[in-house]
Amino acid sequence: xxxxxxxxxFVMMVLEFFIWGAWLPLIFGYLPSLGFTPAEQAWIxxxxxxxxxxxxxFSNQFCDRHFAAEKFLAFSHFxxxxxxxxLVFTKxxxxxxxxxxxxxxxxxxxxxxxxSIAFTHMRDPQKEFGLVRVGGTLGWILAAWPFTLIxxxxxxxxxxxxxxLVDWLGTALNSGLTGEALKSATVWTFVVAxxxxxxxATFSFFLPHTPPKxxxxxxxxxxxxxxxxxxxxHPFVLVLWGIALVDAFVQNVYFNWTGSFLGAAHQDGGxxxxxxxxxxxxxxxxxxxxxTMFILGGTLKRFGWxxxxxxxxxxxxxxxxxxxxxxxxxxxxxxVQLLHGICYAFFFATVYIFVDAYFPADARSSAQGLxxxxxxxxxxxxxxxxxxxxxxxxxxxxxxxxxxxxxxxPTICSVVAAxxxxxxxxxxxxxxxx
Length: 434
Prior knowledge:
Layout: H1 3-30, H2 38-45, H3 47-66, H4 69-86, H5 93-120, H6 125-144, H7 154-160, H8 164-173, H9 179-185, H10 187-203, H11 219-222, H12 224-227, H13 235-263, H14 278-325, H15 330-335, H16 339-358, H17 364-394, E1 396-397, E2 400-401, H18 403-406, H19 408-424
Helix pairs in contact: 1-5, 1-6, 1-10, 1-13, 2-17, 3-5, 3-17, 4-5, 4-10, 6-14, 13-14, 13-16, 13-17, 13-19, 14-16, 14-19, 16-17
C-alpha cells in the first residue's frame, strides 16, 4: 500500500470515530433537559444499538454487495451529518428520535464499510491495519478537545478582562460551563459531529475506489448469523457470551453516567469538573486503550484467556467502586479514567482475539457477529434502557442524585461477572471444530 493511500485511510478512520466521540459522552445529561421521560430517553439512546443489530443482520451485507464503498460512505455521512445538525434545533421527542435513528442507521454500517475499504487496499492487513485503525482511537480522543474552547462561560471570560493571548487562553480554559448552562450548550456536540460527518462525506470522494463485492454463498451466507447460534452448545462459549452481555451493559453504563457524574458539583455528590473539561478527562481512557493494546499480547501469553478476561472485568469494578467510594477526590477520579484501557483491551479486544483463535476460519465472521449481538446490541440496549430510570427514578432523592449508591450497581455486576467467568469459563486447549 502506498503512503498516499495509507494516509487517506488513516484520515478516514480519524474522522469516522471523531463523529461518534463528539456526541456520545454528553448526550445522556442533555436529554433530561429537554423534558423527555426516562422511557423516551431510552428510545433515543437505543437508536445506536438498534442500528447496530440491524447492521449485523442485513444492512452491512446489503451495502457491501450493491454499492461502491467510498460512495456509500459519502452518501451515509452526508445524510447522517444533516440529521445530526438537525438535532441542534429539535426539542420534541419524535423528531429528535427520528433524526437520531436516521443518523445511526446510516452511520453504523460505515464502521464495517471503513474497515472493508482499508482491507481491500492493503497488501499485508496483519501488518498494516493496526497502523490505520489507531487513527480511529485518535479520532475519538481528538473529538473531546474542541469543547475546551466551546463549552466556555464567555461572559465570565470577558468580565475577567484577560490581557494578551496567553492570559485569554488560560482564562477561557478555566471558565467552563456548569449546571443548566452546560446542558443547554451541549447542542454544540451535535454541531461538531455534524460538521465532521459532512467533512468525511466530502473526503470520501478522495478515497481509493472500492467496488461492490460479488455475492457469495447465497442464502447460506445470509443465514450465517443463525448458524452461528450452534456454537452456544459449547458451555465455555455460552458462558463467555453471557458475560459479554453483562460487561457490555457495564461499559455502556460508563458512557451514560460518567459525564453527568464528572460535571455535577461537589455539593451534589459529583466531581465538579468544569463542562469544557469533561470530554477531555474521559478521553484519557482512549489514550490508555492505545497503550494497553501494546501489552495485550504479552499478557495473554503469560496469563491466558481466563485471567486476562477476568482482569478486564475487574477493571470495571475498580473504576466504579472508586466513583462510589471517593467522589470527592477529583484527582483520583480523573486518574481512574485510565482503567478504560484495561477494561476494553483485556475484555472486549480479547474476546475478538479469542473468537479468531478458537473458531474455524469459515465460522469466524459469524462467531464475531454472535458476540457483537451482545457487545454492540443487547448489552447497550440494556444499559440505555435502565440507566435513565435508575438515575432519575431510583437513585434521585429530593432532586439530588445518589451517585454513591448508583455506581454500586455496575460495581456489583462486574464482581459477579468476574466470579462466574473465573469459576465456569474453561476453554479447551485446542480450538473447536464444530
